[in-house]
Design goal:
Number of domains: 1
Low-confidence stretches: 217-223
Structural class: alpha/beta
Number of strands: 10
Distance between the termini: 37 Å
Mean pLDDT: 94
CATH superfamily: Vaccinia Virus protein VP39
Helix content: 25-40%
CATH class: Alpha Beta
Oligomer: single chain
Order of helices and strands: HHHEEHEHEHEEHEEEE
CATH topology: Rossmann fold
CATH architecture: 3-Layer(aba) Sandwich
């Protein structure tokens, strides 16, 4: 069995094991297909290549990680993406999740606070032929007002509370997936849903462990 197939089997086992909490007993077929199609090895540092398809997070430098494949799969699945969706991703990191989202949505706007990671992600996305992702360097908690509203928002770092700016930039109706909690402490993955009237509800989906959402000190710029 090749490494990607083994990764998918591990993801599916985790999906089944957590179904009571997540409400998802299996991945949507388009999500599984996207995970199978995106070369995770293209988005990890060279010194992590041997572990690229392992079902655990990997360091990518600058105190950041590429998330565990199961978590990428779950967060993507919870978004219930449609081919016409406009998606905001907060925390580009390696660019891997952006590449997965780009196979399922019309366009992805992705924000990264670390300029070096943004440059690496841009290069990796370009090398893999991903053309429907826009990148910028900035404070992800502020969102991307010029491109809002977004049908879906995903946040790949833990916030202490759900940023008001992101809720405001979420389309009605729309869905957001975000980890919330203390750095190094208790965190939960939350699904935020905004209905057509603009009412917002939130539910905890799963206990998680993410790096903290970092505020941008530098002036925002294109990447």
């Amino acid at each position: 069995m090749d490494a990607c197939a083994a990764m998918l089997r591990a993801i599916e086992a985790d999906v089944r094991a957590t179904a009571r909490r997540t409400g998802r007993a299996r991945l949507a077929p388009p999500v599984r297909a996207a995970l199978a199609a995106v070369r995770r090895a293209a988005f990890v540092p060279a010194d992590q290549a041997a572990a690229a398809y392992a079902n655990h997070p990997l360091p990518i430098g600058h105190g950041q990680t590429i998330s565990q494949p199961f978590i990428v799969a779950l967060m993507t699945d919870l978004l219930d993406l449609r081919a016409t969706d406009r998606v905001l991703e907060v925390g580009t990191g390696s660019g891997y999740q952006a590449a997965v989202l780009a196979r399922l949505a019309a366009h992805v706007w992705s924000i990264e606070v670390v300029p070096a990671l943004a440059a690496q992600a841009r290069a990796a996305l370009a090398a893999e032929g991903v053309a429907n992702v826009s990148l910028k360097i900035g404070d992800g908690a502020l969102g991307w007002p010029d491109a809002a509203p977004f049908d879906r928002i995903t946040v790949t770092a833990a916030a202490m509370t759900v940023p008001d700016a992101l809720v405001a930039q979420l389309h009605a109706p729309g869905r957001m997936v975000i980890p919330v909690g203390e750095p190094g402490g208790a965190q939960d993955l939350r699904l935020i849903e905004k209905d057509a009237a603009g009412a917002v509800r939130s539910r905890a989906v799963l206990d998680v462990a993410f790096v903290p959402l970092v505020a941008g000190a530098a002036k925002e710029a294109s990447a």
